[in-house]
Specification:
homodimer; mainly alpha; 7 helices; DNA-binding
Amino acid sequence: MPGSSPRAGDRPDDSLIAADRTLRQFSGYTMKRAFHVIQSDLNAALAPLGLRMLSFSALVVVVDNPGLRQSQLAEVLAIERPNLVLVIDELERAGLICRNPSPDDRRAYALDPTEEGRALCGTAIHAVQEHEDRVARALAEPERQALIAALLRIETPEEGETSDG
Amino acid sequence: MPGSSPRAGDRPDDSLIAADRTLRQFSGYTMKRAFHVIQSDLNAALAPLGLRMLSFSALVVVVDNPGLRQSQLAEVLAIERPNLVLVIDELERAGLICRNPSPDDRRAYALDPTEEGRALCGTAIHAVQEHEDRVARALAEPERQALIAALLRIETPEEGETSDG
DNA sequence: AAACTTAGTTATACCTTATAACCATTATGG
DNA sequence: CCATAATGGTTATAAGGTATAACTAAGTTT
């Protein structure tokens, strides 16, 4: 058990270092904590550029896929359409992307990056890469790649990739 | 680049499957998506018990460390003290834990699980374990353990564990 | 042409996290 | 010993992320 004495409140704080031992066996708990650390660091890295994790992601996908529609972007980012609206508003107000009329469909917008958007996107990717380098310092490179691969498989379970089960 | 034709909006949706290729190289993005999947599944598993990820975590730590104080619990769970108050309220109202007066300090509460709390905690751990088994089906067991180890190191970077850099 | 669907939007609600400020109590230090 | 500081718990508040229903305008189907 976590500590030896019966009442945790009486023990010095040191004896609580493994107080979440039971939870640590669950990937969800550990992932939540790791993600929180990463997200904070990432947002801090992006804040000087006026971006957050979400707006950064949206910007990158628009730069890589100019002309795509909002619903497509929402699907790519795996977020709901209504939640994308404010993100696009924000990027548009910042002059990084613009909503152009779609030639095919008068309901839809074709999202395109501006020159500024492309430029800031490059800067932001460098900032995020520096953050990623901090992750890489905690892990050996093959380990980092294995981590990403494992996360990907959790997100999209493929048949045939299972273990001994 | 993601697609071949210049305008993403004109291409079939299939050509957008790798539209987030740039982002995928960053662990933060992939972790966010994987965590979202895990968290949804986990919360769905806990909802029938009247628990969420956070209240479950708090309950488990209280059961494992009876008598600890709220501030200690907050530190163990790495959340701010004010944010714990409602969680404790919720668990107390559900009759799973209770705030007992601390013998040492009249300001503090000693958190203790009730019998019901202990029982539900066991049930909940089983439910979460079943969820974890779903993760385990996507990964080989050594891979799952490597994942948890990697996440832990991201959360708490230790010196000397670095790669080639 | 009527009915259905889709693109984008608005409004709303809930959860999580963060901060400042407060009260009661305990600890510190002249 | 009393003034000051620090701590435990609380309240209020704000911001971010996510989810759903409902609306409009435009496109699609039959």
